[in-house]
Specification:
CATH class of one domain: Alpha Beta
Shape: globular
Strand content: 15-25%
Strand order of the largest sheet: 2-3-4-1-5
Structural class: alpha+beta
Number of helices: 6
Oligomer: single chain
Largest sheet: 5 strands, antiparallel
Number of strands: 7
Helix content: 10-25%
Length: about 240
């Protein structure tokens, strides 16, 4: 994840940190429309509980020095046990049932010897070579801002920029299957495979057990193999849908 070859010494070094999450169905913790922040956990990681599209998301910040698979990161048994243990402690609940779990990775700028929770979550730009900049840090939720600022920084060196109106509206897609939403995504949102729709354009896989496998047949019947890529059994298994 660092720049290769002659650029390695010039590049910012990356430190991976993970954040584990659980989705609880409905509002079993009784938080309503409120968010809860738990800064005092057993290992001083920050933990949060938030309402999210009719369900509840429970998460924690840094898993120091993430060492799992970069292709398919997941919340392991220790991560899930940690979250469940703290939910029981702070919300006085005996049993915790969750719909789904996952781990999100943060690519932080490595400051040697610095605890990951103290490293900035911001994104940074570094000139590596002529017309070559490195973008480091940041989060996926800021991808529009990162892309806009990156292009402005790169193009301003060679072009006079003509400012255009920037799209800043939030597009919310339905969390459950609807034919018109699938067609919209197929036509305009770069859906190449069925799991692109289930996992990355909607939250169907996030808010349904077994990764939303029950929706898979409905989605696949609308895929024209001459226009889109079908997924192999192995790929569907890797995504947790078989």
């Amino acid at each position: 994840h660092n720049l290769p070859g002659i650029y390695e010494s010039k590049s910012s070094k990356i430190k991976l940190s993970g954040g584990a999450h659980l989705i609880l169905e409905g509002d079993p913790l009784g938080i309503g429309k409120n968010g809860v922040l738990l800064p005092q956990t057993e290992d001083n990681r920050v933990m949060f509980v938030l309402p999210w599209t009719g369900n509840t998301i429970v998460g924690t910040t840094d898993t120091e020095e993430f060492s799992g698979s970069l292709d398919r990161p997941y919340a392991n048994s220790e991560d899930k046990a940690y979250l469940i243990r703290h939910i029981k402690k702070y919300f006085n609940i005996e049993e915790v049932k969750y719909i789904s779990s996952w781990t999100g990775l943060r690519a932080l700028i490595d400051s040697s010897g610095t605890n990951s929770k103290n490293i900035s979550r911001g994104h940074f730009y570094k000139d590596i070579d002529e017309n070559f900049i490195q973008i480091s840090g940041g989060k996926l939720t800021g991808f529009r801002v990162i892309a806009k600022e990156s292009l402005e920084q790169l193009f301003s060196q060679n072009f006079e920029l003509n400012k255009q109106e920037f799209v800043d509206s939030i597009l919310n897609l339905e969390s459950q299957y609807k034919y018109k939403d699938l067609q919209l995504c197929l036509n305009h949102y770069c859906v190449v495979k069925p799991t692109d729709y289930l996992l990355r354009r909607t939250r169907i896989s996030w808010f349904n057990q077994n990764g939303g496998k029950s929706f898979l047949d409905k989605v696949m019947v609308n895929f024209d193999s001459t226009l889109y890529f079908e997924e192999t059994i192995e790929e569907l298994q890797d995504e947790g849908l078989l």
